[in-house]
């Protein structure tokens, strides 16, 4: 199974997946890394691992439909079977969503449907969790459809919220769990234990 990864910034979740592939724990093959941000550290990680990578964004393709087709073409040409959004901050276009329907996976830093939807990403999620006095948050792996964070949930895991937590401490605890849980879930997907 060939996996493409789309990332906008550091790519630490992407790196966790690449490390699991490299050591033989995850039976997938990276096909291509795509970023909308030419300065994303994820691209440096891809280059260091010898994985094909491209920058596709509103600068390279000003028309949204053209960008959608360019992303779809890059995924198809690389033989991609499954697409992972690992901190990818843009909404995919209808052509890509349609072609890879049921094969696009996203990771979200809360227990959806809580604290999801448009604008809910990164520290905004953790701020909302703390503001609501939740005692538990977590990580959700879900399929991507045309709406933000509403696709079918594949797996979830809880992460405790501690009384003394700040946005930074909570974010760090959730991210640490994301790295492990993303790999665990993809292993189950690759073995057919979680159907897409």
Fold and architecture overview:
With 196 residues, the protein is of the alpha/beta class. It is 37% helix and 20% strand. It folds into 2 domains: 100 residues, Formyl transferase, N-terminal domain (Rossmann fold, 3-Layer(aba) Sandwich); 71 residues, 3-Layer(aba) Sandwich (Rossmann fold), CATH 3.40.50.170. A 7-stranded mixed sheet has the order 3-2-1-4-5-6-7, sandwiched between helices. The mean pLDDT is 96.
CATH overall fold name of the largest domain: Rossmann fold
Distance linking N and C termini: 13 Å
Number of domains: 2
User: Could you name the CATH homologous superfamily of the largest domain?
Assistant: Formyl transferase, N-terminal domain
List low-pLDDT spans.
Answer: none
Estimated structural class = alpha/beta
Helix content: 25-40%
Biggest sheet character: 7 strands, mixed
What would you say the CATH architecture of the largest domain is?
A: 3-Layer(aba) Sandwich
Order of strands, widest sheet:
3-2-1-4-5-6-7
Concise overview:
The protein has 196 residues and is α/β, with parallel strands linked by helices.
What's the structural blueprint in terms of helices and strands?
Elements: E1 2-6, H1 12-22, E2 29-35, H2 41-48, E3 53-55, H3 64-77, E4 82-85, H4 94-99, E5 104-108, H5 123-131, E6 136-143, E7 153-160, H6 167-190
Parallel strand pairs: 1-2, 1-4, 2-3, 4-5
Antiparallel strand pairs: 5-6, 6-7
């Amino acid at each position: 199974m060939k996996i493409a990864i789309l990332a906008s910034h550091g790519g630490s979740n992407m790196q966790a997946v690449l490390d699991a592939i490299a050591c033989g724990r995850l039976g997938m093959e990276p096909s291509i890394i795509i970023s909308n941000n030419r300065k994303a550290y994820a691209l440096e990680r891809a280059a260091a691992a010898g994985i094909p990578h491209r920058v596709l964004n509103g600068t390279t393709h000003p028309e949204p439909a053209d960008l959608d087709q360019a992303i779809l073409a890059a995924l198809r040409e690389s033989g991609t079977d499954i697409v992972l959004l690992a901190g990818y901050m843009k909404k995919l276009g209808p052509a890509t969503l349609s072609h890879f329907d049921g094969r696009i996976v996203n990771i979200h830093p809360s227990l959806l449907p809580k604290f999801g939807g448009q604008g809910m990403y990164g520290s905004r999620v953790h701020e909302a969790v703390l503001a609501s006095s939740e005692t538990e948050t977590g990580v959700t792996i879900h399929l991507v459809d045309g709406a933000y964070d509403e696709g079918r949930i594949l797996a979830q895991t809880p992460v405790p919220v501690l009384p003394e937590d700040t946005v930074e401490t909570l974010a760090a605890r959730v991210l640490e769990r994301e790295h492990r849980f993303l790999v665990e879930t993809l292993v189950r997907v690759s073995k057919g234990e979680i159907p897409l």
